[in-house]
Amino acid sequence: MAKVTRECVLAIKSTVIPGTARRLKKLTGLKVASNPEFTREGSAVKDTLFPDRVVIGYEEKAELDLLHKVWSFVRAPIIQTTYENAELIKYASNAFLAVKLSFINEIANLCEKIPTADVDVVARGMGLDKRIGSEYLKAGLGWGGSCLPKDTSALLSFASSLGVELKVLRAAVETNRERIEHVLCLLKKLQKKSVCVLGLAFKQNTDDLRESQSLKLVARLIEEDFKVRVYDPAIKSAPSVLPAGVLCASIKDCVEECEVIVIATEWEEFSKLELPEKLVIDARRVIEPTRHNVRAIGRWQE
């Protein structure tokens, strides 16, 4: 900050509570812009070069002009607005994604109770409606990672401090918590105590374990006295929360002595799994669900 001059614009990319940019401008006396990023882990470069939209929160024309130069290479719509609107656009966007994921997971629960119903088919039919769209309409074990959990929590807390109850968002968070217990319930019904969990990262193509639903499931299985083994192609050393000997070096080592396999992260290699003698709970819907040994979440099964 020592070399920052009055001509510089401090652009805030992080997700921050509405009012942050204005307070920072007052505190520092610098030009400030709210320019939240909308990148996804694993595709940050692509998302930066080809964004769906660019949001610029500003107060002075000089702030807006400089950010326009920064983003001159994009063809996406540019939203010019107040600091607070820009900050809230980011929070509301992430909150909506969490709600959308939790909604389809609740529909998955319903599909399991209706003969012939399959949440993947339902989601496909919904997603073709342009008002809904197919993105983030995939039922599974629930959402995790570095963004959605902390952003939903922060937005709920911020809204509460203003006397506003975000009931839909709070319900989405609770639904996400219940995904772990839902899979645990399926396992208990099978009356098998030896479980192999495939996948620890919160999603495929990353080694990020932050708020991983898979890791939470493993912890619950251990609490319930299941014999657990886990494997993830991106995780080479066991996180401190796992007991010694639980993490395996290969799929083969992981599944060898288990009675049930749980697919908890949607790695592509798991979709090619061929173990007809093992029961499989597909918590990420990556395997053909009609196979006799597969119990796919969100699909009715006799």
Automatic annotation (TrEMBL):
Every UDP-glucose/GDP-mannose dehydrogenase C-terminal domain range: 196-289
Active-site annotation: C147
GO term, biological process aspect, one: UDP-glucuronate biosynthetic process
Swiss-Prot/TrEMBL keywords: NAD, Oxidoreductase
InterPro entries given in the database record: 6-PGluconate_DH-like_C_sf, NAD(P)-bd_dom_sf, UDP-Glc/GDP-Man, UDP-Glc/GDP-Man_DH_C, UDP-Glc/GDP-Man_DH_C_sf, UDP-Glc/GDP-Man_DH_dimer, UDP-Glc/GDP-Man_DH_N, UDPglc_DH_bac
Class of this enzyme: oxidoreductase
GO terms assigned for molecular function: NAD binding; UDP-glucose 6-dehydrogenase activity
Residues annotated as binding substrate: F38, T39, R40, E41, K90, Y136, L137, K138, A139, G140, G144, K203
Protein family according to the UniProt entry: Belongs to the UDP-glucose/GDP-mannose dehydrogenase family.
Full protein name: UDP-glucose 6-dehydrogenase
Lineage: Archaea, Candidatus Marsarchaeota, Candidatus Marsarchaeota group 1
